[in-house]
Amino acid sequence: MKKISVIIVCALSVMLIFVGCDYNESKLYNAFKKSLEVTSNENDTDISITLVTEGFSEEEQSSIDSVKMLLQDSKINIHTKLQQNKQKTSRKMYVDTKFVFGGIGMGVEYWADHKMSQKNSKSLQVIKLPSIMMLPPNQELAGKQYLVINQENNEDIIYDSKLVLELQDRFKKFLKDYALQYKPNLKLVKNKGRKTIDGKTAYVYELSLDNESLSKLINYSANNLLDNKEAVEFFNEYMDIISKMINKPEEEIKKVKEEIDSFIENLDENKPLLKENINAFTDKLCKCNLLGEKGIVIEYAINKDGYIVNESGVIDLNIDIANIKKVMAVRDKLTNQKFDDEDSLYDEVSGVIKLDLEFNKKIYNINKKVEIDIPKLTKENSVDINEIMKARNEKYSQMYQKDI
Prior knowledge:
This protein is an alpha+beta fold. It has one domain (3-119, 158-373). The protein is 41% helix and 31% strand. It has helices spanning 3-17, 23-35, 58-71, 161-181, 211-227, 229-245, 250-265, 267-287, 321-334, 385-403, and strands at residues 40-54, 74-84, 90-101, 104-116, 121-128, 146-152, 189-197, 200-209, 291-302, 308-320, 352-364, 382-384. It has a twelve-stranded mixed beta sheet with strand order 7-8-9-10-11-1-2-3-4-5-6-12. A hairpin with a 2-residue loop joins strand 3 and strand 4 (104-116). The protein starts with a helix and ends with a helix.
């Protein structure tokens, strides 16, 4: 029953897109959908992390303390720029990340330039790592400013921009049709009124989830996917297009397609058992109390044009190791994993990790001109990761030959 994992993953994806279908939830969904269509923007994100642990043995706590010291009261600031065409076949991105871990501040800059034409694809990624990582013992990076990942085509993929655009169009149509019948009736979104952002009025909607509503939402989404014929048909069409873009032996592609066809043909017959497994998993998930008292609370501010211009909130995680292992045991049973001693799953490590993430994201310059300048790369200031891998392979090859 490994299909259960696929269904749960799909359900999580669906619930992130469709939070519901009453008036407030539809407003938020439309803003999500519209934000996916932007051709450019900038955003600034501030993240703070608070970590508390309890219930671990002295030995376990000693190991945890080093990580706790690093993460406790850490702060992350991210500035992002995006520039892409409407078809998403050409895209540039810049990400400047500054963070403070364990009282030490560092920064990482990242540039990406992706282009896809009718039959090929080019991808350039440039990373400016913290200076401490450019020093020995990292000999390949010593004295360099930039790490480069330069890819032209991928031997595993046949690039065809027409197929990509076809896939995008089908996906948009599916989302539009699917949203009309997606009704979990959980009232997850509240209208919080208005607030002023950069001198302009924005409409605020709050999304909130606790353990019970999270479990119900996953359960509804997974079961709804199984019952929706259009979703099954779209999945089949999606995999058909993907198979045309995969550069693998014909027999291998044929085998995968036969498995998919078999799953779809036998879906009605297997559906009762699949649903039983989904219900068992989500029931156990609810009881493990993965979310803390605050749960997940996110405020979205939407401007008069329907775009999200601010996101802020808290994600309160309550990771009880013993309870998580029980959930994973249920999942593994549903995927045909065998255990000789079920009770052994609940022994040994126990304790609770309380992780509190607060964030605020400001989005601006939507569909406006955004400048992204890729650094000028030379042999003196940069090194290609392919060269590093090649040099290491040659080194290990020589060492292996000496040992022989």
